[in-house]
UniProtKB/TrEMBL annotation:
The gene is LOC142174462. This is Uncharacterized protein LOC142174462.
Amino acid sequence: MQNKLLTSDMLNRLGMVIANKCNLCHQAEDSRDHLYVECDYMKVVMNKIMQWTHSQNIAAWDWKQHVQEVIRRAKGKSREAELFKMLYTETVNCIWIERNKRIFEKTSVGWERIAKEIACVCCVRAPLRIAEIVHRYRF
Ligand SMILES: [Zn+2]
């Protein structure tokens, strides 16, 4: 959330000339706003993870609204907030790893596999306080 993601548009602004199509959906320019708000690949993975945990999808039309929604849902020490923080950070992390694998290793996997990996990681890494909730969900 610090606006330091090295997406293609940011690298181009820093003087590095690289292709700037999103490597996940191939539909638009690779940018922070696209990745978090518009990218169909990101959306389908995030929605599947939210659906898995019976959580509401993140509904945002722009970056500012996205940040506000994430902060609102991650705020506090409730189990719901803790669960949301874990789901959100693991999803963003796995998507970023997939994006980089596509760019640097020329490999790719479908959104279903990424979503399953995120669910597995969340089941393993869930703190005790929310592990019992997470383990109840069926993917
Ligand atoms: Zn995309």
